[in-house]
Structures are given as C-alpha cells and as structure tokens.
Amino acid sequence: METLTIGKLAKRVGVSTDTIRFYERCGLIETAARSESNYRLYSEDDALRLRFIRRAKSLGFTLAEIGELLVLSSDPAATKADIKARATKKIDKIRHRIRDLTRIQAGLEQLVAQCDGHGSVDDCPILEALSGEHAQHNRSNH
Amino acid sequence: METLTIGKLAKRVGVSTDTIRFYERCGLIETAARSESNYRLYSEDDALRLRFIRRAKSLGFTLAEIGELLVLSSDPAATKADIKARATKKIDKIRHRIRDLTRIQAGLEQLVAQCDGHGSVDDCPILEALSGEHAQHNRSNH
DNA sequence: CTACACATTGGACCATGGACCATGGTCAAG
DNA sequence: CTTGACCATGGTCCATGGTCCAATGTGTAG
Question: Would the Cβ of B8 be found within 7 angstroms of any atom in strand D?
C-alpha cells in the first residue's frame, strides 16, 4: 500500500496540511502512523475519509456531526435508521434557518418598499422603522 | 432629563449591562457621561439608540453594518438612497444564503429518499454517497 | 556540500457577539 | 456599621473551522 506524507495527502484531497492536523487533534481522523523520522504516514483509506469529511461539510454538517457519522459508519450495531435520522435532523435545522431568513428578508423588503430613495435621511422610513415609532416588533430570533 | 445607570438602561431596553459596555467598546454608542463616582450615566436617547440596534440586529444586520447605519442616520449629507442601498445589499446577501441552504437541503433530501432506513449501515446509501462514488473508481473493501 | 522543500510541535490568532470572572469602589436600607 | 445590590476595569472564555507562526529536524536535487 502506497504511503503518503501529509503534504501529498493534502494535495490529493484538496485540503491544507494544517487542516489534516487539525482534524487529527479533533479526533475526526485517527492519529497517523509515523515514519522513522516522525513524519505522519497516510494511506488511501485516509484520503477516502478526508473526502467523506469534505462532502459532508459541503452538505452542511458540522465537524461534530461528521464525527458522529464516522463513528456510526464503523459501528456494527449502527443502523441505516441512525444515519437517516441524522440527515433528517439536519434537514429540519436547515429548513428552520431558511424560514428565519425568509421572514427577515420579507421584513427588509417591506422597509425598502416604503423608501423612495430620494433626499436626505431626515425622514427615511427605514431609519424611522428601526428607531421604533411602533415599538412592538417583537420576539427576536437567533 | 432623567439619567439612568447602566443597569436601569439595560433593564429598560432588554439587554445586559455587559452588552452595553461591549457596544461602547465597539463604538456603537458614545462613551457615556460619568457621575462623580465614575458610574456611566445614560439618557432616554441612549435607550432609543439601543433599541435601534436591537431591531436592526433582528433584521440580520451585523454590528458593523449597524454602526454604518447609525453614522448615516446623523450625517446631514447622507441620503435615503444610502440607507436603501444598505438594506438592499443585505437582502441580496440573505437571498444568496437562502439559495445556498436550499441547494444543500435538496441534496440531503435526495440522499434521505434513497435510504429505506432498515438494517445495518453496511450498505447505507447516504454513507456511500458521502464516501465518494464520484471521485474514486476503486472501491476497495475487505 | 549546499540549498531548498517539506515535516514536526505548540501556541497564538481571525471574526462574531457577547458572557463571565475577580477585585475593588459606591450607595441605600436597616 | 453592616449588608447586599450595584458599578468599575481589564481580562479570559465560548463555539466554529481552521490559518499562521517560529524554531527545528529531515529528505532530496544539483
């Protein structure tokens, strides 16, 4: 089996060497084997694992969630239902976030629609709305 | 004019005293006047300004952006177009973020749809997709 | 042999928006 | 006078996902 130094692995996968060491510190990848001169040695399996992380990240999973997925993926007692539940939960979170953003967008659009965009800011309807003429635009989100 | 200590102001507006001091450090609110005993002293105007910040935040503006809005709002040379441009730019950013999230959501939904949710993770289509059937011709297993 | 590229470590730093802490001064009530 | 609530400062810490750094060792090409 071909062994890779951290730099080769990084290039092959498309991440930085710092990122690989960071993932190792986080426990996302196992502590690598070492050469005589204490260099980390990797295999193609490690490249696969890093690509897995990259793809999961692009689907919105956090590193912590990816860690869970990786644990499950090598747990003989884990079920497809476990994985599916994680993905479904993530979808729910994203849906929620989209709803929040959509509400915010609507609020801003309403303000923008009220502003003709001419003249000084003295009577800007956007600023007036923020200054709280009608002070009860309640329930902040985060 | 009634003067408020930081605690009273915080309660009135619904933020913490830490938050008010933090905003002062950031330059979002002016350095407060001080009492003989070095206590910060605030007026109703400060309460208005803090509420402005609270509302703008709930509309998705960052503190830096809110700072700009506040500068514009007291700049005689500023125009409604300036404010409107800020709001429109923010809408664009939000729209973009929503598009990203929607794409991610669609990707996840597609994966979830492929998984029947029964049995061990050995042949989980979600994990298989993340493991990169696209990127690698060689699916070694043993 | 001499460069130069690459590897190692631990730690500091980035943005964001505050929360929390210790230590010490101030103020009002009882 | 004492107690407890409030205020001051400057500092650290949180999550997130890394990046950058210095000092030092190693591998390789010319």
Answer: yes
* Substitution target from B49, B54, B63, B80 for chain A, most A beta carbons within 10 A: B80
- At residue B122, does pLDDT exceed 70? yes
Q: Which residue is nearest to nucleotide C25 (CA to C1')?
A: B37
Is residue A105 situated within a structural domain? yes
Is the CB of A48 less than 8 angstroms away from the CB of B132? yes
Q: Containing domain of residue B53, as a range? A: 1-61
**Within a domain: A32:** yes
What's the structural domain count of chain A? 2
How close B84 comes to chain A (CA, Å)? Answer: 6
pLDDT tens for the 142 residues of chain A, in order: 679 999 999 999 999 999 999 999 999 999 999 999 999 999 999 999 999 999 999 999 999 999 999 999 999 999 999 999 999 999 999 999 999 999 999 999 999 999 998 889 988 999 999 987 644 433 333 3
3-state per-residue secondary structure call for chain B: CCCECHHHHHHHHCCCHHHHHHHHHHCCCCCCEECCCCCEEECHHHHHHHHHHHHHHHCCCCHHHHHHHHHHHCCCCCEHHHHHHHHHHHHHHHHHHHHHHHHHHHHHHHHHHCCCCCCEHHHCHHHHHHHCCCCCCCCCCC
